Input
Amino acid sequence: MNDVARQARVEFALALRRQWAGTLYPALVGQAGADPDRAAVHAAPVYPWFAWLERSAQKMLWRAVEDAVDAADAEDDLPASAPGLELNPGLRLPAWYTDVDIHIQPGGIWRADRDALVYEAGAKLVMLGENDDYAFHTLFTDTAVPDRPYERIVDLGCGFGKSTRPFKRRWPDAEVIGVDLSAPVLRLAAHRTAGLGIRYVQADAADTGLPAGSADLVTATMLVHELPPPVVAGVLAEAARVLAPGGVLRVLDFHPTGDAVRDLALVEHGDRNNEPYLPMLFDTDCLALCADAGLADARWVAFDERGAGRLETTRWPDRAEWHFPWAVLEARKPEDARV
Output
């Protein structure tokens, strides 16, 4: 298969996803009727097609991305070591992490270097092909994080650095630390950001090993919906521990919108996209967990990925097409908190 054919496969899979989001979802909303329950949504004639195409297009996209990565001869092997890269060969990966091929990516993202490269290529397409140069993550950094100096920024679940780089771009004088469980994605992150001075630490986000009270900002992007509820509690507690008094927490993830069809579609997306903990997030009171961890003023606000970014409201804009209900979890560590 030549490069043109490989690119055509990717474009075809993306076209299917756009039809799913822009055509099938509005049809599902219309057929479900006013104020529908789960039964009404499932009874809609278009629902089987909506459900089938979501999972099938995702599988198709990963196969196309895998073929493209396997055909790329220019990629060097990822470095076993690099400045700022702190791997932990003895780290035992938890079963909740290794037992699921998250996002239906075959093999997950932690077994080999190829997994990290496939993940990187696929992540650029998760926003229907509109996340080049990680504009989505930059929008979060630019609109959802208080504009003030930071000496140390900790990015939990940083992956291959897609969420970490925007922080270093905006605050070049800050020490930026990315934390992740996967050694391959951290090696890729170090490879892609060589010379930027970002530090990457292989550790559990609920047990980073970083000093207490050492960070001015702790952040996470697209992380908590991939964690079991007890781990979510542990991550928020660890964030509170690592934050210095006066430090802030900013987490970008999903939150119920109150729209019955959209919320149900997201809950069932967890099953169709191999994200089993996502439905559990809707039943997890993250605001209470923040309070239990000693954080103050915790709240969720809406986030519009089309350009506005963080919104000073809990109401999402009206949109006919399918979109993820992005939201920002905000909290702070009180100035008088003990470290």
Q: What stands out?
A: The mean pLDDT is 92. The domain at 82-332 is CATH 3.40.50.150 (Rossmann fold).
